[in-house]
């Protein structure tokens, strides 16, 4: 990848961040359109986006953002109250910016449908606003004044340009000392350079930062009369810069690496006088004569450069791929440390210094692991901010008044999980608004509620997991109708004794939703099977709580990270297995009286009124056993699955610990009952159980 391609990739990433922030800030501004400090912040983001977009050839985005910037600039400078219709246009413009960015990245020839309409609306708005101000302003100065001013700078003298260049070179020679170089730089920027984000002053500033002396000479020959002048075009086809500096020519070239080759040239001036042919009429514009230290201070507007450098070094961008590699390496380090700490041969060495060293190593390893894990943890605030836009748009489309409550925005979650949470959250929120809340305010009033509905988005920690919940105060779920629809669809037979959570979980089965379901069941099954699948890929689960007439809560329970799992280690038939603690309810040794065996149905245990099927791991994996022990002689681990609770029979509970998840080979990957593996401190390999696959959905009753 070339340097320009690398910078373009950085721009695309930064542009995405700017657009995401615009999406959030524009909603905050819509709520308080008199917050002109926020409008200034939005303007700065749009201004940055415009310059960068044009610089990298995204001209369609640059054109739209350019006109959008004019509108924002007008309102932020005049502080005029924004009409509702115009505020809606501004909000919609941010949507168009997002869509145009996608078109530019994918090099799509067609623009979004709203592009022309929105752009025309912006142009009409700014024309109407600026049109009024032009009429009330004083008449413009005569065009001839511009021509006369140019004449005063000697534009009619054909030798002026080269004469000024020669004088500058001679001046530099007088100040030249050992280790200093004199360069003659010619800039011939293309007419569209301003749209690409480049102007002559930028390069003068960059060169001045490390210059001993610098002088620039412009060519005004091609500047048109005022009637034909456009501030978007570059009419200065040539500019000369004479530079005295200690920098090498390669360091000078770095300042122009984003220009086309034909737009600049650099020549080293030797001690002998330089011979050159006069070319164009010119005028001197700017002279800077500072030491490098002074130039640095003036370029930063009086701010201490050491402070700037310290601020620049306080944060750094890291490729997530490199972060993942670091995380994997730390996982290997943890395994190696555990192996040393639990090695029997090392334990037999009764040496206090070795014991202290191993203990110190353990503490350092744990600290490194915690720090590296924290690098991947980011606040869920940005994801919640995106959901505010979803709530706004869905509210407008459905015509329902509602209020969004956001709690726990500072809760941190693994960065790799953040990206996968947006789609499930969007789907659940849309369902909560469209189908969870009552149809209108009148229906809510009849139910004894306020006309304005409430949606609550919350994140919090619970028992070593992250919980993200979406709650509404709507109609709730009608259990009887859910059961009836599930029987009609063949999802259940009707003979099952299901708990409330199992009944609510039926709405997430594929094929549950139909047009009838939308009218009878508030449509809560629409696409929720996709949501369930997405959460399960993150090794999480969805819990549904609902009270008819009061509302519903969807809770996504997720692990803290995808790379490390908190598990319960169990032994069965001489093998070690890991059960994710997220699924474990309790473990117990049953009394003989509560264990039952049904013909062709298997073994069951009665636990607080529920009959739980007993799953023997030795049977699941065909493990050789010397004798078949009875359940009351073993230990049962009660776990929660999507189909309800089951009891896994094991010989012994080994303990609980965090393990680094390792992918399985192709042969073991086919076993749906296994979700991964882990290397224990002893060096042994333990398999991680996928408890949902140990028993099919509502197994044994209608399968």
UniProtKB/TrEMBL annotation:
It is an enzyme of class 2 (transferase). It catalyses: ATP + protein L-histidine = ADP + protein N-phospho-L-histidine. GO terms for biological process: chemotaxis. Residues 1-108 form the HPt domain. The modification Phosphohistidine is found at residue 47. It comes from the Bacteria. It holds the Pfam family CheW. Residues 352-562 form the Histidine kinase domain. One of its GO terms (cellular component) is cytoplasm. Keywords: ATP-binding, Chemotaxis, Kinase, Nucleotide-binding, Phosphoprotein, Transferase, Two-component regulatory system. InterPro entries: Bact_Chemotaxis_CheA, CheA-like_dim, CheA-like_homodim_sf, CheW-like_dom_sf, CheW-lke_dom, HATPase_C_sf, HATPase_dom, His_kinase_dom. One of its GO terms (molecular function) is phosphorelay sensor kinase activity. Its EC number is 2.7.13.3. Residues 564-700 form the CheW-like domain. Involved in the transmission of sensory signals from the chemoreceptors to the flagellar motors. CheA is autophosphorylated; it can transfer its phosphate group to either CheB or CheY. This is Chemotaxis protein CheA. It comes from Sulfuricurvum kujiense (strain ATCC BAA-921 / DSM 16994 / JCM 11577 / YK-1).
């Amino acid at each position: 990848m070339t340097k320009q391609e690398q910078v373009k990739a950085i721009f695309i990433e930064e542009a995405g961040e700017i657009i995401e922030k615009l999406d959030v800030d524009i909603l905050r501004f819509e709520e308080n359109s008199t917050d002109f400090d926020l409008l200034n912040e939005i303007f700065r983001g749009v201004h940055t986006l415009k310059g960068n977009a044009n610089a990298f050839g995204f001209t369609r985005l640059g054109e739209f953002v350019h006109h959008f910037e004019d509108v924002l600039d007008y309102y932020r400078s005049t502080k005029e109250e924004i009409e509702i219709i115009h505020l809606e246009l501004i909000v919609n413009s941010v949507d168009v910016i997002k869509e145009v960015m996608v078109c530019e990245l994918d090099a799509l020839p067609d623009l979004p449908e709203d592009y022309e309409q929105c752009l025309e609306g912006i142009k009409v708005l700014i024309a109407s606003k600026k049109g009024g101000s032009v009429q009330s302003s004083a008449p413009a100065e005569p065009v001839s004044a511009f021509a006369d001013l140019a004449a005063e700078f000697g534009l009619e003298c054909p030798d002026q340009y080269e004469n000024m260049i020669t004088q500058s070179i001679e001046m530099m020679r007088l100040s030249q000392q050992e280790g200093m170089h004199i360069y003659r730089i010619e800039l011939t920027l293309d007419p569209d350079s301003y749209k690409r984000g480049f102007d002559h002053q930028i390069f003068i500033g960059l060169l001045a930062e490390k210059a001993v002396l610098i002088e620039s000479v412009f060519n005004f020959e091609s500047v048109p009369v005022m009637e034909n002048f456009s501030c978007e075009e570059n009419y200065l086809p040539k500019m000369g810069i004479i530079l005295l500096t200690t920098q090498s020519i390669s360091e000078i070239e770095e300042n122009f690496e984003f220009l086309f080759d034909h737009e600049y040239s650099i020549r080293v001036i030797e001690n002998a006088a330089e011979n050159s042919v006069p070319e164009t009429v010119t005028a001197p514009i700017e002279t800077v004569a500072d030491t490098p230290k002074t130039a640095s201070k003036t370029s930063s507007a009086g701010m201490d450069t050491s402070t700037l450098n310290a601020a620049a070094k306080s944060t750094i961008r890291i490729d997530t791929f490199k972060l993942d590699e670091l995380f994997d390496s730390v996982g290997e380090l943890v395994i190696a440390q555990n192996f040393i700490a639990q090695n029997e041969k090392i334990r037999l060495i009764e040496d206090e210094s070795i014991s202290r060293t191993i203990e110190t190593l353990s503490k350092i390893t744990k600290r490194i692991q915690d720090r590296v894990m924290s690098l991947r943890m980011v606040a869920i605030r940005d994801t919640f901010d995106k959901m505010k836009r979803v709530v706004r748009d869905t509210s407008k489309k459905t015509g329902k008044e509602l209020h969004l409550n956001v709690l726990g925005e500072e809760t941190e979650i693994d960065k790799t999980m953040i990206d996968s949470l947006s789609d499930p959250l969007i789907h659940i929120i849309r369902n909560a608004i469209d189908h969870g809340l009552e149809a209108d305010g009148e229906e809510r009033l009849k139910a004894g509620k306020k006309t304005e509905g409430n949606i609550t988005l919350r994140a919090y920690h619970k028992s070593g997991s992250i919980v993200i919940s979406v709650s509404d105060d709507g109609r709730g779920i009608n259990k009887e109708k859910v059961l009836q629809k599930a029987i009609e669809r063949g999802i259940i037979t009707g003979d099952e004794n299901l708990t409330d959570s199992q009944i609510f979980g039926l709405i997430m089965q594929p094929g549950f939703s139909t047009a009838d379901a939308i009218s009878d069941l508030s449509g809560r099954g629409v696409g929720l099977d996709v949501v369930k699948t997405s959460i399960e890929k993150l090794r999480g689960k969805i819990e549904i709580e609902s009270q008819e007439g009061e509302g519903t809560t969807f809770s996504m329970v997720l692990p803290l990270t995808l790379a490390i799992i908190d598990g319960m280690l169990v032994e069965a038939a001489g093998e070690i297995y890991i059960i994710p603690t997220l699924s474990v309810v309790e473990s117990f040794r049953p009394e003989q009286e509560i264990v039952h065996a049904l013909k062709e149905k298997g073994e069951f245990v009665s636990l607080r009124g529920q009959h739980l099927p007993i799953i023997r791991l030795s049977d699941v994996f065909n493990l050789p056993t010397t004798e078949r022990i009875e359940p009351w002689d073993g230990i049962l681990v009660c776990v929660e699955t999507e189909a309800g609770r089951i009891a896994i029979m094991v010989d012994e509970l080994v303990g609980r610990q965090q393990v680094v998840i390792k992918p399985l080979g192709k042969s073991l990957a086919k076993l749906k009952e296994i979700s991964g593996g882990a290397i224990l401190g002893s060096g042994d390999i333990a398999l991680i159980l996928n408890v949902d696959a140990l028993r099919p959905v509502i197994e044994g009753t209608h399968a």
